[in-house]
Design brief:
32% of the residues lie in helices and 15% in strands. The chain starts with 30 loop residues before the first strand and ends with a helix. It is of the alpha/beta class. The protein has a 4-stranded parallel beta sheet, with helices on one face. The protein has a 3-stranded antiparallel beta sheet with strand order 6-8-7, with no helix packed on it.
Length: 240
């Protein structure tokens, strides 16, 4: 029977698919592309993922996390997507991430891994920066300003090498962080199956291309035109 309450995880359940989710996640090595399929490096057959968005939550106790993971595994879910990672962890401050939020996230990742559930990171949407990040002041002024001294880089990372470097710095900080609950840095943990380098905010999605072609914001638009002209001159040499 369907009981609208916290799952009792009855051993009599005919829909429990926990047995189909090998645990812990990562035991078959890193995920690789195999033609049109995905395959773990130590596996002979491709893998299929049944995934959901399920972010870390600071309100969740360790017991809550375990309950969520058991529920996912019971329903055959073997992939969780953290979207976006940077919104949960916050900004880098003096090269460091917020210790309390990082601890929550580390615990959530480890609990998922223990239950055979891999993780996808959607890292930015879009990235927020501050004056302390060192982005040129004249370019920083063109970014939409938010509360707490934050500036939204949405879309412009596609044309600004400076913003790309800041995203790489952020990603390196979290990838090289050692999770105390797994004993591994994230870059060395095959339970991290996928990292989305970019989510949605591109020149061909929503507004950035329209604004830039209209000359807004002006310095970033000039940056795009300059790069295109430099490329065209190198490629074609002459007008003819």
């Amino acid at each position: 029977p369907i009981i609208p309450d916290i799952d009792s995880f009855s051993g009599k359940s005919v829909t429990d698919m926990t047995r189909l989710v090998p645990r812990p996640a990562g035991q078959f090595g890193f995920l690789k592309r195999d033609g049109a399929a995905l395959r773990f490096e130590k596996a002979t057959a491709p893998v299929r993922f049944w995934g959901v968005n399920a972010s870390a939550d600071e309100k969740n106790t360790p017991e809550d996390m375990t309950l969520r993971c058991r529920y996912f595994a019971k329903h055959g879910i073997n992939m969780v997507r953290q979207h976006p990672l940077s919104s949960f962890l916050g900004q880098l401050r003096d090269g460091q991430l917020d210790a309390r939020k990082l601890d929550t996230f580390d615990r959530w990742f480890a609990e998922l891994k223990k239950h055979g559930i891999y993780m996808t990171w959607s890292v930015f949407y879009g990235m927020r920066i501050t004056e302390a990040d060192g982005y040129p002041p004249d370019l920083l002024k063109e970014l939409p300003q938010e509360a707490g001294g934050l500036y939204n880089t949405y879309g412009l990372v596609n044309v600004s090498r400076g913003l790309q470097d800041l995203q790489c710095r952020y990603l390196k900080a979290i990838l090289t962080h050692k999770n105390p609950y797994t004993g591994l840095a994230y870059k060395d943990d095959p339970a991290l199956a996928v990292v989305e380098i970019q989510n949605e905010d591109c020149l061909f999605f929503h507004f950035p291309l329209n604004d830039l072609t209209a000359g807004k914001p002006p310095l970033h638009a000039k940056m795009l035109r300059t790069m295109f002209c430099d490329w065209a001159k190198a490629r074609y040499k002459t007008d003819e």
